[in-house]
Amino acid sequence: MFDVKINIVGDFIESYIYSGVLFTVDTNGVLCSYSWKHLIERYLDSYPEYSEMKDKLLDFRKGCNSSLHKDFTITIDRKFLTQHQKGTCTALNVWCTDLDVKDNIMYIASEKGVETIPFIDEWNNGVVQHFVRPEKVWSGAKIFGLSTGSWGRTILAAGTKGAIEIVNNKVDQIKKIGFSKKIEKEINSDVILGCEWNSQSTLAILDGIDKKIAYKFDDIGSDSVFKDNKNAHLLFGKLSHEDKEKKINSVLNSLEKEDFKNIPIDKFIHTWLESNALHAIDCNNKKYVFKGRGWVESSKENFFNDISILRLKNVSAGIFLETEDEHLFRMVEGNKHHLPDNFTSWRVFPRSKNYQDRIHIVYDDYLQIRIFDC
Amino acid sequence: MTQQIKPVYRHKDDHRIPKWNWVNKSKWIVSIKEEEDIFNTGYSENWFFNNDIWSLKYTNDNLCVIGEDHRPEILKKGQKYAELVVAKFIVDQGCWHGYPVNPLTDPPDSSLLTVWSQTPGIPKRKIMKIHTVR
Q: ipTM of this predicted complex?
């Protein structure tokens, strides 16, 4: 079980990777983009002995065919990062609390609320070389976390203002169906500090101050054929006029009347999303999965013993969990690996197809991108 | 902008036992002398946001707990109070007073998070915890 550590020197607070673009935010509130492929290729120019790892470093799906024979650590210093930045930087003038990217739009949560930076025109095969000015989409309170869904829907964890669902009318799918109404719906009025939607936007978990809250949302259907890309245009063109009308009317209706129901999770000590489904564990370490109408017992997991979980995320590289006492673990194949403490933030990409094998961990002086064998 | 004149500081009773109102006020758990030291640190370091001063007490690469928040609506189950590490000071007719704040309801501005995280002796991860209230 080997891994690669890519240490990128800098005073960061956050990072994100999306479609070949690495994004970082530093303590000055400066957002930067880097072509991940370009950075890796330039590094390998100087260290050809690592070339066989290239696919693994770039992309989970490409890298799955090769496995590591030993641990590697790669250090990218400030000079190298600046010299080989195929990308750009912009001052957000704020510390973000969360980032999300969907449909080539970056969503930034902060004390300002939520701002978006679309890079639809700026995205060019894994390179973002220009950021437009951030656009305010919601500014009613400090936002502690957000999660984007289909049809421009986004859940906001608004602290003492609860959890709110908004619709970003600027996404192509929404513009295409002619939906212009301002949607701002209260999902929950408790103190909410985080939120997560599954990739179909049918299940959501909210992080309350001392408990999780789960919801099942109406399935509005996929928005993929309404997106502004070649494949979507092709599929949309194949639909009959009647089918288009029917689909559009159904979505317009659903967006206005969208309903959600609370899923009871009081008996569990932790709940999380895994492979698009809602999972939970009880005080006897029994694992359950939510199947439409109720909870079904699935297995027993012993590695949760004596752990008070603050945050848990599941990707192909394993279960990553942060405990109340500020430790970070990777659980894989029944083993628990303690990752170095004193981290500032960490992020995995459960809804991404390309980055299932890695975790981004921000430490005091560097960002570590740690890539595991799949 | 550097402040030249030594500021006047006066502590207020309503954030201290016995006059402390736990329902809507935070409570100092440090001495009055330490409270004033925390103010002086913020003042001398120029940790201003708008007209207020925000400050911290830090030692050995850690932030010190300086206050408590007992409001039940922001507490976890079984928790008696939230520990506070940030203080806010306001000026009224030339006289300063302050109180510990809960970053959930009184979040420090990002400009303060930047200078705090870049101050030697203050760990960035602790500033991030203030920021995300985790």
A: 0.93
Three-state SS for A293-343 is: CEEEEEEECCCCCCCCEEEEEEECCEEEEEECCCCEEEEECCEEEEECCCC
- Of chain A, the percentage scoring pLDDT greater than 70 comes to 98
A vs B, Cβ pairs < 8 A, gives 62
The region of weakest confidence among A15-24, A107-116, A175-184 is A175-184
Instruction: State the Cα–Cα distance between residues A150 and A173, nearest whole angstrom.
Output: 9
Task: Measure the CA–CA gap between A220 and A202, rounded to whole angstroms.
Answer: 8
Q: Test B75 with A144 for CB contact under 8 angstroms.
A: no
Interval A102-119 mean pLDDT: 95
Interface of B to A at Cβ within 8 Å reads: 73-77, 79, 104-105, 107, 109-110, 113-114, 117-118, 123-125, 128, 131-134
Angle at the Cα of B134 from the Cα atoms of A34 and B129, rounded to 5 degrees? 60
Q: What are the boundaries of each domain within chain B?
A: 8-132
Residue A115 banded pLDDT, cuts 50, 70, 90: very high
| Structural domain span for residue A18 | 3-372
Q: Which residues contact A40 (CB under 8 A, 6 or more apart)?
A: A54, A57, A58
What average pLDDT does this structure show over A310-338?
92
A9-59 residue pLDDT tens: 999 999 999 999 999 999 999 999 999 999 999 999 999 888 888 999 998
- Residue A55: CATH number of its domain: 2.130.10.10
Tally Cβ neighbours within 10 Å of residue B36.
16
Total domains, chain A: 1
> How many residues in chain A?
374
Sign, CA torsion A108/A112/A118/A122:
negative
Structure tokens at B80: 């008696």
How confident is the model over A344-353, as pLDDT tens digits?
999 999 999 9
Predicted model pTM: 0.94
Query: Kind and range of the H or E element at A136?
Result: strand A135-138
Query: Could you count the other beta carbons within 10 Å of the beta carbon of residue B90?
Result: 13
B104 vs A contacts (CB less than 8 Å): 159-160, 191
Q: Report CA-CA distances (Å) from A6 to A205, A270, A351, A366, A367.
A: 31, 31, 22, 10, 8
